[in-house]
Amino acid sequence: MNNPGHYYGKQSSRLGNKSDVYLAKVGRYHIKQPIGAGAMADVFLAYDPKINRMLAIKLLKPEHLKNKEFRTRFLREAEAAGKLDHPHIATVYDVGDLDATPYMVMELLDGRSLESWMLDEYNFSTEQILDIGIQLAEALDFAHSKGVVHRDIKPGNIVCTDGVGNVKITDFGVAKLTDDHEASAGEMGLVLGTPNYMSPEQIMGDPVDGRTDLFSIGVILYELAAGHKPFTEDTIISLFAQIVNETYTRMEDLSVDVPPGLSKIIGKCLRSNPDRRFQSGKELATALTRLKNEITSTDLGLNQTQMLRTLWGYGRISLRLQLQRYKLKLLQAWAKKLEPKQETGDQTDKAQVEKIERTSQRQEKLSALQERITRSQSLKQIYRSQLLIPMRLIWISAMSLIVGITIVTGTVVIYKAQTNSMKNFVLDSGASLAKMIAIESAEPLLSEDWVSVEALIEDLSQNQEFVYLLLLDHTNTVRGKALPSYIVPGDLERLPEDHIVHSEVQVRDWQTVDKSIFDFSTPVTFQYKKIGVLKMGLSQQELQEAAKTTLGMMLVLMVVTLSAAVGMTALIISRIRRPIDRLNKALDYASQGHLHGRINELRTDEFGALYNKFNTLMDEVEDQLHEQDAKQP
Prior knowledge:
single chain, alpha+beta, Phosphorylase Kinase, domain 1, 6-stranded antiparallel β-sheet, about 50% helix, about 15% strand, disordered N terminus
């Protein structure tokens, strides 16, 4: 493997046949050492003391100094490269002629040629191949816009300066200047370039333009993706025939993992008919960039902003239209009331004239309003034709509604059941407690031992579960009581009539100033004979707090469940929406005339089958167009 270094052609071990003293300096540039050599010139490492910068200087080989063609080509390269200031084209700083020896001072490139990476069998990723293709296409598009056609694009003339992440085009030695008619006439019929990378029009000696460089890019991309050149015949004649007749193994027929879109782009670059290739470097760069974004992008959604604007506009104009129609009905009703009555006399009453005038004004307003309604209807139709309600919004809304109704219904049912269950538990406990106290108080009440009765009530009142206790004898005389300050015995006599009987105990639900209370009323009996009544009040506060806690937990559960359902639905919809958007973009791209576009995602579901049908359709369309081109004279 070659070590990275300053690259300008093949390494040279000689400085030429001039003296070392002469080569030690060219103009103000100090020669350091040779760093490369080509068929026409030698390249040296040099130092510019004026700006303290290392650079490369290119000198025409001594044996070619008297050759007019080589001198012309060298000067043409200097003129062509000197026009170009682009990040992916090697920069030319200075051009001169020293003792009839032309030289060119260039940017010193610290890297390796693309050819050396390929000889080392470096495994280029799809993204790296696309990046290289994009950079080359953009650089050549810039060169073509300046009237320069390279005509010798090949891996040896491409330098990688940052691993394989950044490339620069070098060696414009056989470049064509589109405004150099004299050179073009002299080269008519000549074959210039490197055979394996030459376009059919170069081989045939026909006039060339920027599309010939795009053919060469196609050869390079093919070689990077497949690991070998597309045209591999041994003899020049056979090789040229292979290129002109497009007899090469298509990328689709190779056992390499290449996206279908890249295969089609390469195939379009390698068309023998320039009119069937990409027509500019910009067009090729756009296709490669789109393919790269399609492969690497995770967001293929529709224009959400435009969608929301359209939805907002449709809603706004619909509301305006409804208001205008309502206003029209009011005006029509008002105008009907103001319709003048037919007069029988010869003269019209003054009031009637005024009424006619007001009616005329109302009619004018009605006409104006009807015109605005007509315009609003037209605008609504426009918005409606542009309106696209996303499937994601529809499904999420529907799922939210269904899940929301289900959860709310379930929450209400469960909450009521839970509340009733807790209420029954409180009633059971209260009824049992009331019966037990009634049994305990029966004997002292029967013996009229009021001291014991008061002691019992006082002892029981220490239990904070009771709001109040009241014990009455058979004459309804209070014999023992424990009442808070906000309740008087008269309040207990005015309790609501409505009650329920729970375990043979009457229970009333009533409200004091700030408390809800269950009132338990049970007879005090002795040997099945009623001897008094016990009234006991229990607070509902703990029951209400437990119900609130239950409701809060169920609301939290409802929100979590609804959020999970909506989130899961959104995730599923996004997974479904992405292939739909991908297919939609592919169709849009094809409708613009870019028939080389293919869907590169591999899927094993129904969308995968749909992608394959789309790719097959585009293949058939391209094949038919190719056959038509072949039939044309």
